[in-house]
Amino acid sequence: MCLGNICRSPLAEGLFNQLTKKHKVSHLFDADSAGTSNFHKGEKPDARTIENARNHDLELRHFARQFNSQDFVTFDHILVMDQQNYLDVMEQTHDESNKLKVKLLREYDSHLPGADVPDPWFGGDEGFEEVYEIIHRSVLGFFEELTKKK
Ligand code: 4NP
């Protein structure tokens, strides 16, 4: 989950699904991504995100969509990129078991656990690489946690 669903969360989705394929457990897990806003609904990821992902041998196939309350039913884990996303998602439910599903992605980052994934939208290309590294580390941490319990 992020704001626009065109920069950070499509990358997290792509990296997670690439990882489950690599470990031959893609039949057990499925990641999708969404935005708290509908600003970019139906759009492909930002061109800079697509290019950055390609530089890391990852093809992104997602089209932006807005988060909705059904996602609390469909998914076991809802990982958000920053504090604002966290507040926006938590506002959409009163159910305690739904609230427990929502976590900051960087809770799984070995560097700066619990920090925000910065929004690269207004910055330069180096911001996209920094975001890639953060999300890559965090998704790996999350995957390890998830498969440890299984
Ligand atoms: P994202 O980045 O939340 O990582 O997809 C953004 C994309 C678009 C906007 C903000 C953040 N926007 O304001 O349109």
Structural descriptors:
2 strands; 150 residues; binds 4-nitrophenyl phosphate; two-stranded parallel sheet; single chain; mainly alpha
Structure description:
This protein is mainly α and 150 residues long. The protein is 45% helix and 4% strand. The protein contains six helices and two strands, in the order H-H-H-E-H-H-E-H. A two-stranded parallel ribbon has the order 1-2. Helix 2 crosses helix 6. The chain is globular. The mean pLDDT is 96. Bound molecules: 4-nitrophenyl phosphate. The site of 4-nitrophenyl phosphate has 10 residues, from loops.
Chain-wise SSE layout:
Layout: H1 8-22, H2 47-55, H3 70-74, E1 78-80, H4 83-90, H5 96-101, E2 102-104, H6 125-149
Bound molecules: 4-nitrophenyl phosphate.
4-nitrophenyl phosphate binds next to loops.
